[in-house]
Amino acid sequence: MCDTLHTVLAGYAGYSAEERRIALATLCARPAWARELLAAVGDGRVGRNELSAFQLRALRQLDDPEITRLLELHVGQVRAADATKEQEIARVREVLERDGPHELARGREVFARTCQQCHTLFGTGGKVGPDITGSQRANLDYLLSNVIDPSAVMAKNVEPCMSSAASSAACAKASRICT
After folding, report:
1. Where do the domains of the chain lie?
2. Which residues, other chains included, contact 33 with Cβ-Cβ below 8 Å and sequence gap of 6+?
């Protein structure tokens, strides 16, 4: 296999956040490299939560049966990109990059109003959805993809379900607010 691939994977643990972002983008570009990347996710050398929804969908779009199998095995469900949601993500990213962050302190308030019915953050919230304390909240791409298109990537240990009309309504409300 290519020396670049092995060099990137061997040094990954010591990379800065920006270097890791570049390394992941590089490893997602070619099917052979993507297979090795997903093997590294499987054995823990690369954390599965380090791959953004955008990168995971890019891997899926390589249309390689082995990559698809490894995604399902090590990551979970990765569905095809929704063009409308991708456009909304791009629009919101552009606004944030142009105007800067607005009232970031209100994030906790928004979480309490819309997300904590299902998700836990720092020990507070529901248990229906995954605990998002360790998520990449400082990564804008990760945050936007998970807020605007939360079902694009479903971790293998998370099974979406609606147990009642009330929980269905709560999730529908959160979806409307986030999108």
Report:
1. 3-78, 83-178
2. 2, 5, 26, 27
